[in-house]
Amino acid sequence: MDEIKKLFEAVRQRLSGGALKDAVVSKPLSAGERHVLVLSEVSLMFGGGGGTGEATTAGKPAKGTGGGGLGMSKASPVAVLVVENGKARIEKIGN
User: Fold this and answer.
1) pLDDT recorded at residue 94
2) Do residues 77 and 70 lie in contact, with contact meaning Cβ atoms separated by under 8 Å?
3) What is the pLDDT of residues 10-32, one digit of tens each?
4) What's the pLDDT at 22?
5) Contact at 8 Å (CB) between 75 and 42?
6) Are the C-beta atoms of 8 and 14 separated by less than 8 Å?
7) Confidence band of 92 (pLDDT split at 50, 70, 90)
8) Residue 39: beta bridge partners?
9) 49, 51, 60 from 54: Cα distances, Å
10) How far apart are CA 53 and CA 34, in angstroms?
């Protein structure tokens, strides 16, 4: 069990090292003198589990082991940074 915890901690550290405090800034989109950058929030999730068990199958003792894991990521735009005529402003997206 300790080995699994160590593995998940190593994966968490590796994934966290690639994120900028859960935020991502897009490449600038430009039209004339107006430049827009999309600001997004990023979430990384993963989990897993495993176990062993014993049962009786067709009248005979049986043992089994199983495990599984999953991971996912999600990026949601939360605001845009607009730079126009030498001034910058942030426009919130959504609520």
Assistant:
1) 81
2) no
3) 776 766 665 545 568 889 999 99
4) 58
5) yes
6) no
7) very high
8) 25, 79
9) 17, 11, 11
10) 63
Confidence of residue 4 (pLDDT cuts 50, 70, 90): low
Q: Which residue has the tokens 């043992």?
A: 63
Map the chain to HEC letters.
Answer: CHHHHHHHHHHHHHHHHCCECCEEECCCEEECCEEEEEEEEEEEEEEEEEEEEEEEECCEEEEEEEEEEEEEEEEEEEEEEEEECCEEEEEECCC
CA-nearest of 22, 5, 8, 9 to 73 is 22
Find all residues with CB under 8 Å of 11, minimum gap 6, and list them: 46
The pTM score is 0.54
Residue 57, token pair as written in the block: 């199958």
Query: CA-CA distance, 21 to 40, in Å (whole number)?
Result: 11
Cα angle 42-13-81, degrees, rounded to a multiple of 5: 25
